[in-house]
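[job 4471] stage=fold_predict status=RUNNING
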Amino acid sequence: MSLTLAIGFVAPAHADSCVSSAEFGKIRNGMTEAQVKSLTGTGGTVVTAAGSGKYRIVIRNYKACTKYGAVSMGFMGGKLNSKTGIF
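[job 4471] inference complete, writing structure tokens
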């Protein structure tokens, strides 16, 4: 009987804190900021925020997993209501 042991390093899925086009495709309007962060592994950067409660608007920019890409998402009342991505 022989036993083989393989040891390697597997980087975490979100090691580079960027949004892939596959992840972007899974993001849907109505998702919460926490759900988007859970899916992408990053909370992005808040570029603007105004209002309060269900009228609070937050715009977040995210790094895309491409050299020149960019992702932006708008949340109203904590839920996604717009997304734009260039990959």
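[job 4471] summary: The first strand starts at residue 45 and ends at 50.
[job 4471] exit 0
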